[in-house]
Amino acid sequence: MRFLIPLLLFVVSFGNAQEINQMDSNGERHGVWKKYFPKTKQLRYEGAFEHGKEVGTFKFYCEECKDQPTVVKEFTLDNSLANVKYYTAKGKLVSEGKMEGKLRIGEWLYFHKKNSEVMTREQYENGKLAGKKYVYYGNGVVAEEATYKDGLLNGPSLYYSYDSKLLKELFYVNDKLEGPAVYYDAKGAKQMEGKYVNDRKKGIWKYYINGQLDKEETFPKPLKKNIKN
Questions:
Q1: C or N terminus of the chain, fewer CB within 10 Å?
Q2: Which residue in 129, 79, 74, 134 sits closest to 104, CA to CA?
Q3: Nearest Cα to 16, choosing from 24, 8, 28?
Q4: b/e for 82-105, b at 16 or more Cβ within 10 A?
Q5: Which helix (H) or strand (E) holds 108?
Q6: Per-residue tens of pLDDT for the chain, all 229 residues
Q7: How far apart (Å, rounded) are the C-alpha atoms in residues 177 and 182?
């Protein structure tokens, strides 16, 4: 009997080992899979497949991570989406959101390094930025509010100070400044205003001191003629 017990343990261990990194009859990955970085005992990823499809929880590691994953994917029951979280090697949550395949969709949150407060709130459609994007200071006050379409800045962009004073009002078309622009000082008084065309100042720009008009400039400025002796 005493010889039978070690034999049974060997059979069980051997059977469990055989269950890892297996293929089904169609050559698709099936069951629990684990991969290691070359020539190390450090996990690269671990998770389960259902006839070639990722299911449940997948964890991905860096070479220095030990047992702390840098990416965790939780697949939905119908396997169409995954809830994804990114971490630092020390376990600090960096960002989280949803993915459809390799594309980001819906709302994604990014967090400040020094605390757990939200730093950036973004919206994605088919892997591209779409709709409103917000950037926050560490105290939760909005620092930037921008509008995106197809991954490019399109629409108004507003910038604020740490105490919620409006600093800039800009307008973008396909990632280029286009249209009216207004800049303010730290007290909220207007500093300058004008218009951009194709990312360049165009027409009359007005400059203010303490909220009062100080001077005007016209863009583009005329080229200086070379005076020949």
A1: C
A2: 129
A3: 8
A4: bebbbbeeeeeeebbbbbeeeebb
A5: strand 103-111
A6: 454 444 334 334 434 445 899 999 999 999 999 999 999 999 999 999 999 999 999 999 999 999 999 999 999 888 889 999 999 999 999 999 999 999 999 999 999 999 999 999 999 999 999 999 999 999 999 999 999 999 999 999 999 999 999 999 999 999 999 999 999 999 999 999 999 999 999 999 999 998 899 999 999 988 776 656 5
A7: 12
